[in-house]
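Re: weekly structure request thread

Next one in the queue (524 aa):
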Amino acid sequence: MKKVTLNDIKELLQSRHSLGDITSLKDLPPPIHFKDIDKATKRIIQAIENDETINIVGDYDADGVVSTAIMVEFFTKAIGIEVNYMIPNRFTHGYGISSKILEDIYDGIIITVDNGISAVEAAQICKTRGLDLIITDHHTVGVSIPDAYAIVNPKQDDCEFPFSDICGANVAWYLCANIKKELGLDFNLMAFFDLLTIAIVADVMPMKSLNKTIVKRGLQELSNSKRPAIVAIRERFNLKTLSEEDIGFKIAPLINCAGRMEDATIALEFLLSFDEYEANEQLDYLIELNENRKKEQLFIFEEAKQKTYSNDNVIVVHSDSWNEGIIGIVAAKLCEKYKKPSFVFKQNGLTLKGSARGNGDINLHTLLTKVSHLLVGYGGHKGAAGLSLKIGNFEKFKEEINKAYNLVPKEENYISSEYLCEMELDLIGRELFDLINSFRPFGLENTLPVFKFSNLLVKESRTIGKNKEYKKLILTDGQKTIETLVFVDIDEILEGTKVDILATIDKNEFRNETTYNLLLKEIL
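Done, posted below.
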């Protein structure tokens, strides 16, 4: 094997970038390209002028919570009016705008954020009751489209907005931008870039072009934000500057855990906190909820592995005792472990409610259309989906989805166990770490580079973490020894064995001493 140099790695990283990407905020496409955005804007302005009630309906994940926060803050701070806002409770209302949610809305107009594109029944109820429904969403458009007053969603076939892979908060932000333009408001929409960046990263949007440009600037805004919630997070976790990894591993789980464990309104109130005292009180509770979530998640994951048939094309498991707020994370963990699309269901009476996660080889929404005759309902996009079915159809679903997997075209450019190159341990250090960091922010389609390391001896293996759910390996190639942290689920590794691994480079700062280590992705 030719010894890889820093220059080789630089060239490989540069080759991953697309020409023609949006690299400057001044090149962001204007709102006008969205189908129905002008129609939605005019109706909202009419509602403002006529003093109608404006109802915002969000979603219980981080993208939905942030979308709601942006809309609420825009109306109160930029326009100076109060709005009604609600986020469905996962356990009592189910997903998105529904007949249950509509029981609490009596008049005015309704604006959905990060949901609504599959709300055919709710749209019909609104129509019957004379409520104008404006849907803003980013999820895949199904066969049946809601009969709404206006639909702002870049995934509509006749939408001319040039980027379809944006999050729900970004669609909401663009609607705010259009309202601002029409009303001639003096308000800086960059004020929302701290929140918008959290949503883009948390909802795993492709980290290129428009998304990457917003996140790059948004991370600066997060690091300097005066928003009480963000100040509380920076101080609590001792973060002078924030990275996309801080969002992915610290901020997003805190926002998500509220909806998973209790009610997403807790996270919304945190983001909208009036001062740091209020923010810190909310943050204390979110941290407590998140610790409980971790314990419950570990327990469900271990049970789910026992129910898994690793020879199947698609992992499908269910139980009547699992927390439906956590099954999405467990699906992601199963997908990570087995490198296969994974479906995890919670049984409620005669109905199974499920979450699915994909590993990038196929489009999950396309896969679900192949078995839609067995489903009560479904929605989502390429990498994640939600669905429900009757318990009597479970075995048939499991059989047919495994067959359907072979009928769905594989995604272009998908590579299993992808890594940038193979390298030796002696290259790991500050120069390599700084070189990699110069290509941030990382995310989907601009992934943190993974490297292959061969023939490493396991000198030591031990469990770490509050719940002993993680591992630390001490590896050596005979010349250099390095710590390797393991946050993925792997089988037991015996000391004295040799392994080939895929890993990313990480930095550890402790008591003014900086060391560089590995984060294990996979044992080959």
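The mean pLDDT is 91. The chain has three domains: 29-284, 307-407, 417-523.
Next request, please.
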